[in-house]
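Morning run. Coffee first, then this:
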Amino acid sequence: MRSLALTLVFTAAFQTQAPQYRTLNDRFEPPAIATGHEWTTRARYVREHVLASAGLLPMPARTPLNPVVFGEVRHADYIVAKVYFESLPGFFVTGNLYRPTGAGPFPAILSPHGHWTNGRLEHTPIASIPGRAIGLARQGFVVFSHDMIGYNDSRQLTHAFGGRLENLWGLSLGGLQLWNSIRALDFLETLPYVRRDGFGVTGESGGGTQTFLLSAVDDRVAVAAPVNMISLHMQGGCLCENPPGLRLDLTNLEIAGAIAPRPLLMISATGDWTNETLEVEYPAMRRIYGLLDAESRVRAVRMVAEHNYNKDSREAMYAWMARWLQQAPDAPSRAEKNFTLDKMTDLLVFYARPLPDAAVTPDTLTANWIAAAKAQIAMADRSALETALRHALGYGSLPAAAAPPPAPRKPAVLLASANADLESALRRAGVEVTRILFTTFDQAAADKVRHFETYNRTAASQRVADIVEAVRRSPSSVLVADGDAALAGVMAAAIVPIRRAILDVSAFDLDSDAAFLDHLYVPGIRRAGDFRTAVTMTRGELILHGAGARFGVTGPRVEVRQLTTPEIVALARR
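And here it is:
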């Protein structure tokens, strides 16, 4: 590819100081929201942003679940069975279904687990996942306790699944787990003994993250109780809690708050990162609920304990779920009866049995996801793709770009080019030239930040942001760029109105994932339709040259041609 590498070398002398990178352990302030309307607007953004960062905007097709429920064991006051179903073709969600005796219909609760050694089968004084399912089933709830990816019966992927290629296409461990949770609610809706008027969700630690992510994006969640996870000074340490781009400008408190005014119980502990909940996070959450006249629907309790979902925490959750899903009297807790667990081997779905023949491998799952995404992009509503692209680029809270301003009295150019002769020619022609200053990307510092892309822009995304900011400072100027800066310029034109952009895209191969990885690595950009979507969003004149045969984009404001330096100068002066 012509001149892409040269662009970065040439612009290195025109770079600004590197930013202080954001991390999962930073201490963040509560959101400064003054009115209910402000919060509902912000909550809509949160919902969109969670879906986009998880690769679920537009929403994938809800393919057949093909559920299998078997191995039922009847106890005196509850029933437990084994379950598997397909959240995607050939990709299985596994777990146990606990339900009361009787025909129902009963309210249902989804129960994601945290990062315990034994996953959904963890049973210690600190946390008993089967214990809370048994306790709820005895109290009249149907409970689906399902595996995190890579735990117990979820064998097809490890809990470290994903990489840069998958990220380009919006495929991540966290996104898949959120999709599994959405499909788990779909599964619960198929059961004849389950009520369909709203579900409860509760989980601890990483399962707490799953709880509030699902609650933010799926209105079927009627009540939530995330345990030991809502914090303004620790956002989640596992890959599954950190889809790329999720927390560029978000915190767990805001994500959890998106459920408002639906009921929310915040359970915290003195011995982990939720130790300040009663003093910091709960007052902030209560303020959000107060703006919606729903203060009675949020509550917080703190246990004197280490990181947990222990008996005290479970008993607080039981009362909360009973209040809102069974219309029980308000109470701080509901007692848990003693219980005896079934053998672990009797609860495992695929113990001593193979995975179904349809089970896909990791490579096949990725290939199938990309193929489905390509097909969906070709048919999807353009507004959904445009929204997804704005979120991928870090501008999801902005409306569509307005019309660009008129030409200035004196021709002006924002320049990001490796061609020194072009700059000289522009100045000789009387054009005012401002070279774009690109933020230095400190790769060594970035490598030290856990889940860097969840909290910070990639180098390519930062180039887009730098161009957007330059255009905002000089809105009437013509943008002239080449190489990697030109690719970023196309994306910037989708965000901010640029009167005219003259961009040498250096024979970029639009169909090559490797080209995106090398020159425009922005998680989610391919899932959002990349350049094909960006050109539909631009409101100014987009002149692309050096395109080559594999950069076949078209649009009402797009012109593709080959340009000489004098022609570029003439267009810049127009």
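The mean pLDDT is 94. Good start to the day.
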